[in-house]
Amino acid sequence: MMARHIGIVACSAEGAALCYTTFCTEAAARMGRHEHPEVSMHTHPLARYMAGIEAGDWQAVADLMLDSARRLARIGAQLLISPDNTIHQAMPLVQAQSPLPWLHIAEEVMAAARGGGYRRLAILGTRFLMEGPVYRDAAAAVGVEVQVPDASDRVRINRIIFDELVYGRLLSESREYLGEVMSAMKRRGCDAAVLGCTEIPLLVDAAAAPLPTLDSTRLLARAALREALR
């Protein structure tokens, strides 16, 4: 089975690794034992991305993404994904200059939300994501409502991501805390939670979560597989 070569524009290691392994391991069910499309990855250091994100300089973020995109295009990639929700805020700047087409992580999550019949989503992710337009805009385009945790919770979730999850530190107290946040969002009328940081699925047990979860990392990987085989 012929498949297109996927390029992964990575940002943080743990989320990118989860996306990559999901993509490769789940391909066998579609393609045959040990098979998966060709895949390549490039990443600039997370520190460079954070400099742009923290300064609100989305052009700087876009420039990093585009540099990775061009490197991947040169080695044969045919479509691109980024397993990082936050940097999708730069995607409008990226798409205008990209040498290759991209899948958009929030659009894939919203397609899954619509398919599941969910109408009001709790967004969990970095402070920049929860307070930014990525999911708000993607949800509005399909008539879905989104809500974010309270300000103090946004601060703590952000700290869990950047002080723990990006380093692969999975702490039970942080798992319990995210469960409490989801319970609070359920009381506010949310019917599902978007795991909108690509590392959060490493920490949250979907089977035990207070809300149904939309795992942005794995949803993007599965969408990339479908697109590569289309």
Q: How would you explain this protein's 3D organization?
A:
The structure is a single chain. By secondary structure, the chain is α/β, with parallel strands linked by helices. The protein has two domains: 6-104 and 218-229, Rossmann fold (3-Layer(aba) Sandwich), CATH 3.40.50.1860; 105-216, Rossmann fold (3-Layer(aba) Sandwich), CATH 3.40.50. The protein has eleven helices and seven strands. It has helices spanning 13-31, 46-55, 58-74, 91-95, 105-116, 127-130, 134-141, 151-163, 172-187, 200-203, 216-229, and strands spanning 6-10, 39-43, 79-81, 120-124, 145-147, 192-195, 213-215. It has a four-stranded parallel β-sheet, sandwiched between helices. It is globular and about 45 Å long. The termini are close together.
Blueprint of the fold:
Blueprint: E1 6-10, H1 13-31, E2 39-43, H2 46-55, H3 58-74, E3 79-81, H4 91-95, H5 105-116, E4 120-124, H6 127-130, H7 134-141, E5 145-147, H8 151-163, H9 172-187, E6 192-195, H10 200-203, E7 213-215, H11 216-229
Parallel strand pairs: 1-2, 1-3, 4-5, 4-6, 6-7
